[in-house]
Amino acid sequence: MIIRSLVARSGPRTLGLARSSSRSSSRPLRRFLFTETDSIEAATENSLKQTQSLEAQLNAQLQQPVPSINPATHGTSAALSDNVAEQYYMYKQQSKQTGKLGTDLSPHYQPHTLLNHPPSPADVTLELLLASQAHQGHVTSLWNPANARYIHGIRQGIHIISLEVTAAHLRRAAKVVQEVARRAGMILFVGTRDGQDRAVARAAELAKGYHLFERWIPGSITNGQQILGRCQTKVVNELDQDIPGFEEQLYDRPVLRPDLVVCLNPLENYVLLHECALNNIPTIGVIDTNANPTWVTYPIPANDDSLRCIQVIAGVLGRAGEAGQKLRLAAAANGEITYRPAQDLRPSQSERSEAPDASAESAENTESPSSRMGKNVPRAQVDEAGLVDTDEMETKLDEVTNHESHRTREGRSIKATS
């Protein structure tokens, strides 16, 4: 009872004190807001006066007067829309006058172009080689004197390779690749440095050859029967179509060797070049100023450290191989074979039984030399004269043929792929 009476008595007094305190605190806040509003209005008026003074100065100097700002309509939605339209119209006028100014950057360098669309030998220009940094050699202290005929001069202690010589040697190497591909030769592209794998694989894909971008196994050519003896081979016709039925006859044949080797970094693949020289295999290599040009058969003096230069050279050689393959297939479509076919390959008995009506010409091509000898001389006369027995001669000739050496029967001319 005591507490309630105290609260009831003290309630109105405390409420009156709260109301009086709120009134006293709101007065300074209103005064502060009024002063801030007045200052903003004063600043706006000052800026408007400055703008009008600038308009007067511009109107005095320009022939066409600048429209003045109307304080009543300035800042409204209609004024803003008119201002945007005027600015857009001025932008279109300026773009029409200045749109043709400046430089054109359309033929800029795109890294994927050299891989997706490599240049052909006809597209080799000095500008392309210069842009790919093919002219930059090594410092003069690392040069090989055998490269003196390829060097144009010295700049800041670095040898500069003559781009005219580079273009001439590149076109010559492209012609060699094209002719080897036209004669159905095996072309091996080698590039074991970092970043060269895509260029090497692309060039081999265009030329229908082989590529190597990891590591050359020493002895793959000189001792290829032990290293590559288990690689599977197949027989194809002049149109690159697989011909089954010769699998058993390919087991005892020697391994295939490349007819041309394209090496993009000869310094790291000296063993490969040495093996090619021992087996009379022509080679093409990118020779920098610190390399020996006598290591390869067809040197291309250029910068072997530039990845862009390697892509240009590999693309040009790949395009040359593609052109050679097209010429070979076109000649094969017309019935002309541009290479020496494989020797000592006979169709299986199943194929003979399936095609009994084969032409006489194909039968003569598959005959052994001993059967042709028997046809030239009648068997009755031979047996009566006692000169030779045809069956025994056929057996002996087959044995000699099976034990014939690789060079004698020219096994490298087989049109096969591994």
UniProtKB/TrEMBL annotation:
One of its GO terms (cellular component) is mitochondrial small ribosomal subunit. Keywords: Ribonucleoprotein, Ribosomal protein. GO terms for molecular function: structural constituent of ribosome. Residues 393-418 have a biased composition (Basic and acidic residues). Residues 340-418 are annotated as: Disordered. One of its GO terms (biological process) is translation. HAMAP family: Ribosomal_uS2_B. Belongs to the universal ribosomal protein uS2 family. PANTHER family: 30S RIBOSOMAL PROTEIN S2 PROKARYOTIC AND ORGANELLAR, SMALL RIBOSOMAL SUBUNIT PROTEIN US2M. This is 37S ribosomal protein MRP4, mitochondrial. It comes from Decorospora gaudefroyi.
